[in-house]
Design a protein that fits this description.
Layout (H helix, E strand, L loop, with lengths): L1 H11 L5 E4 L5 H12 L7 E4 L14 E3 L7 H9 L11 E3 L7 H13 L9 H16 L5 H21 L3 H7 L2 H16 L2 H13 L2 E6 L2 E5 L17 E4 L2 H6 L4 E2 L5 H11 L6 E6 L9 E10 L17 E6 L11 H7 L1 E2 L2 H56 L7 H20 L1 E12 L1
Parallel strand pairs: 1-2, 3-4, 7-8, 9-13
Antiparallel strand pairs: 5-6, 6-7, 9-12, 10-11, 10-13
Helix pairs in contact: 4-5, 4-6, 5-6, 13-14
Length: 450
């Protein structure tokens, strides 16, 4: 009720565009209110929230937080502040706490501000200090105890608690966890990937091929709906009433009603998995003209994926390349993968109509089977090299890590035997999984020279 009253007052009396966000609204209505507030051009100037707005929402684009009332629990207060003070915040967060002089609200503000210093910095000791002084705080808010004495004791207790927390920090762990150069390299790689536009282009092609309707919403954003002629009964993460998605990280941070699509998003990964598990698009036939190559010469392009059964926790991709393996063989069973790239072949090949393609396949079935056997032989050689390289990398990386922890344990009792045992288990399981890796034929393309 308070949120609604404030929203009506600001809108009608002060002429401020504002939206309400409270328990009485449906999830869709709350999403719309948050989206309107996030709209930088014509959105709401203020969002009036009840306690439900203190968690689960991201408003890092805003820089002013007005706390009409204060929670006694410091954790709840930090949750409220954390809606603005989070990744993506470009400036300082200004916190405003209106109160009437001499009231409980003023005394609570002073205890939080002067005792815990919670408005200026994170306060990890806030909850234990609050638990220790809860009864006395309640008495002080009712006027039954001297608030100044309580603030002084709280300030000292907070300092002591913060000091104990600092003494218990694992400095070695912190030093190892912070690798700015490596972190910046990863950040730049992510940014380059997102700027390329490759993901959006692929996703639109995917939707076109599977019959999913998509329309332009705004820059880097699409509206998706199930199509009437979808090739699959279900498209991952797409409800019947549709969904709005974005490929822009900044937009996703400001608009929680939009799904942020990356290569790892379930909508993408499950759709790609569905394609790989079916025969859709796994065979093609084309023709090309090459100077000096007799007409009727066959080229067979095969794409294999590396298949390895192992727990994700092993992170085998660190050692074993899971990139598709390509083999291109000609009529004399020579591997031309290095001579003619996949991209170059795409430029040269021309499509063949269905009737002609059926006739070619019937006539060349035996020759195609022979080329497939030759391609499988080359692929196995590639796999053997991959296994050898992966085994060497796994032994070197995990072996060095085990040696490092064993040396560190001699001088640091915080290194546990369980950590070293776990690394040994990782090494054994990783090497065994790499040895079991095999190749699966995923797609073939037959090219006949004309």
């Amino acid at each position: 009720a308070t949120a609604e009253q404030l929203e009506h007052y600001l809108h009608l009396r002060a002429g401020i565009r504002c939206a309400a966000f409270h328990e009485g609204l449906s999830i869709i209505e709350r999403d719309r209110a948050a989206a309107w507030f996030a709209d930088a051009e014509s959105g709401a100037q203020a969002l009036i929230c009840s306690e439900i707005g203190s968690e689960g929402r991201n408003f890092q684009f805003a820089q002013h937080l007005v706390l009409f009332d204060l929670p006694r629990n410091p954790d709840l207060l930090e949750q409220r502040i954390g809606r603005l003070d989070r990744i993506g915040q470009a400036g300082d967060v200004h916190i405003h706490v209106p109160y009437l002089a001499g009231t409980a609200q003023e005394r609570l503000f002073r205890w939080l501000h002067e005792g815990l210093d919670i408005f200026r910095q994170n306060c990890p000791a806030g909850r234990p200090v609050f638990d220790a002084y809860r009864e006395r705080l309640e008495a002080a808010l009712d006027g039954g105890e001297d608030i100044n004495a309580l603030i002084e004791e709280t300030r000292e207790a907070t300092a002591n608690a913060n000091r104990r927390l600092a003494e218990g920090r694992d400095r070695l762990l912190e030093r190892n966890a912070c690798r700015p150069v490596e972190a910046q390299r990863i950040i730049e790689a992510i940014r380059d990937s997102e700027r390329s536009g490759e993901l959006q282009a692929y996703f639109e092609t995917l939707c076109d091929n599977l019959g999913v309707e998509h329309e332009y919403h705004s820059e880097g954003c699409l509206v998706l709906r199930p199509g009437e002629h979808m090739d699959t009964a279900h498209f991952p993460e797409l409800p019947e009433d549709g969904r709005t998605v974005t490929f822009d990280r900044a937009t996703a941070l400001a608009r929680e009603d939009m799904a942020f699509l990356t290569w790892e998003h379930p909508m993408l990964s499950e759709a790609m998995e569905a394609i790989l598990s079916t025969e859709l698009g796994n065979a093609a036939l084309g023709t090309l003209k090459l100077r000096g190559v007799p007409a009727g010469t066959l080229l067979l392009e095969c794409l294999y994926t590396v298949n390895v059964s192992a727990p994700k926790s092993l992170q085998l991709q660190r050692f074993l390349s899971l990139s598709p393996q390509r083999v291109l063989v000609d009529s004399r069973d020579r591997d031309l993968s290095q001579a003619i790239s996949h991209e170059r072949l795409n430029q040269l090949v021309r499509r063949v109509d269905h009737a002609t393609a059926v006739g070619i396949i019937r006539q060349l079935q035996g020759a195609v089977d022979e080329r497939l056997a030759a391609a499988a032989g080359f692929a196995e050689k590639h796999l053997a090299t991959l296994r050898e390289d992966a085994t060497r990398r796994a032994e070197n990386h995990l072996g060095e890590e085990i040696t490092r922890l064993e040396s560190l344990k001699r001088v640091n009792p915080q290194v546990r035997d369980e950590e070293i045992s776990h690394l040994r288990w990782q090494r054994e399981e990783s090497l065994a999984a790499i040895a079991r890796a095999d190749l699966h034929l995923q797609a073939v393309r037959l090219v006949v020279t004309a």
